[in-house]
Request: fold
Amino acid sequence: MDARLREHSVLLCACDADEAAAATAAVAARRAGYEVRRENLAPTSNQPCDTPCDITLCVVLLSEEAAAAPGFLERANALAEHMPATIPVRLDGITPERCGAPGSPIRERHWADARNHPSIWQEIFHSHVWLYPAYDDLAARTARWETCGRDDSFLMQSVNQAKQACALIDEMRDDSFQRPSDAMVRYAYASHTFARRQRKRTRRHSLVLVAAIAAAVATVVIVRGVVAAHVEHAVQSAQSAYSMRLETDPAFFSFQTYCAMRDAGGVEPEQVHALTAGLERPWAMGILGTEDFNAGGWQGEGVFAQTGAQYWVRADGGALQQWNILAFEPVSTIRVSSSDAFVFDVTADGAAAVVADADGVAMIDLETGERTALDTACTDSVAIACSEDGSQIAVQTASAIAVYENGARAREIDLAGTDVLALTRTAAGLRALCATSAEAAGTATTAEETAVGETVQLIDLTMGEVVAQAPLPAAEILTGTILPAGEALVCSNGTVSRLSATSALEPVGFTTRDAPSALASDGNVLVVATEQDGVQVVDLATGTVLETIARDLAGVCYLSISDTGVVACGNGFVTSIWSLLPIAPDIATVSGVTSAKTTYAAESATAELADAETLRITQPEFALGASGSASDAAPEAVEGDSPVSATQPTTLDITLAPYGDLGTATSVCIAPYGGAVALGFDTGHVLVFDLASNGQAYLCRAWQVPTADGVEQVGFSSDGARLIVEAAGRWWHPWSNSGCTSMEGLVSLLRARQPKRWPLAQWQTFPKDVRQQLGMVCATAAPAER
Reply:
């Protein structure tokens, strides 16, 4: 063998009877540039197989003699299980079914046949089996890029990652089985060109180079983590699948749990725990475009009307789809462009849309579909925004922002040395958020500042003036969004800061772990989408992550938020809609909330803190759950939720010690219908107990104020479905989950919380009588375009 260290090593496993074939394979492997190691799985050996840690490929030679040799298959399977790539090679009539149980490493691999194929050894050792996972990932990225009209946002953002893709293309060109397609080659080199252009402006800074390397390494780690998670999920038990359904789709999980309870004839203890776990998680209002996606369609970015009741989204075929968010029904589909690559905005009343594409800038009447051309020369648009009535339009191109007033071009802002981070309509008019070099911004005072200085600017496009600006730290990853009130948020290398009226960047206390793919804010919360952490809802007042939403939607890259607290999350295929009401706080005072610090008296019952660890309910016979029948009574609870039987006919004591260190109770309240009691603490914890018809109490909700502020007041909504919690002067509205320990109460709870529309595949899994009982409605496809 050469004195130099070879790049790849191959482990040949064979029995004594197949020594001739092993020798032939070894010669072919050395010719192909492999370092060859032999593992003679002799039946006389009792030593355990050592698994080499530097082997690239394992080749197992299988024959009738090998299969009959004692211990051969067990030792071969043990080796193959720990190899990065394994190829079983058939030398005679041996079959996979005789080489291990279902699921064993040797049986489940793709076999090579050397019986009548003399060139098989050359093909095996000229394949790159260890690169196939990376090849499959690149193929999936390419397919998504092609499906979405080759949009630049779907290209790789890292230069190193793009180089790796190009290197993968080069290495796989002569592969025996998997060769890159022309589309994959175009994607890899387009990604490389795009990534280099993105990094060009910060190439002079050494810190940027370090950050780029760190980002590339983080991307590799994330990808490896995702792949490992998928592999682990594939071999997990039913319990793992159970947990996954709970995390990604708690609504579907909870409805399935209800069906199991219904079939069992009542509430079972294990199901109570499973059900409350699903009910405690946020549920989507529904998903738009599922049926269109099943038919080959897709959805891109979208915008809400001012009322939040209507949503417009870019769709395939150059179409604009309108959806009624209140009813979750498609309203219309209008073809507004000759291609899929267009940008748009909609007036506040939803009567008209402004569209920019390769044919120029135009105004579209959304009632009739009539197109009025405004500027046919502007054919390279990147983004667009219009005023509430559409009289003013701002169009971003590669070199400038053009402002139109009443259909005519009024002014133009040169973008030389400038990157536009956001362009949108605000209450103060049209505004643009830009990152500008100090020389272009006119703020540099020295030669050094001219060379390296940068400024973030918030520009009022109505007046053409900078309304706020601040020095910008050097950053490789830079994104931003504009708030409805006219302020702006900037994310620089993951750190989110507010651009204040005093022209300063003030950190909000939140940092992302990787590059955001989309940002949106209503001024109260920030919604940020990243590959690593999904879609997070962040409290801007404290920087606290309130919740992670859209867990069942991978690759979210489009976000939109309405003035009414509704969030749209799109991944280029479908759009998931979420309400912020049970997630985010409200500073508006909620009137009519009644509570007490230690004793709350209602007509049906009285709740009293007997001591620091006991909540006493008197006259519980008048404070039963939603169902008073014995058949719906909840049985004995488990895992710390032990019910406490009444010590006398009119008293029920609830012990708080099993629920941990909750702090000091600050507020207590009984639900309006008398079937539940809520207790708040100075640590921000809130406990809700269902008062069942059998005289027992069950924990149905354990919630904590996400910011950890102490509870000042706790109450119920008029129907008891939601909690109303005051903490630090703000009001929270989480679901109470009261009534979940009776079938009748559970039906009311599920009907109130369920998605507006169910995807057809999920809707069909439930029996017809269940769908009718719970009022489940199936999603529909968007109407044909006009």
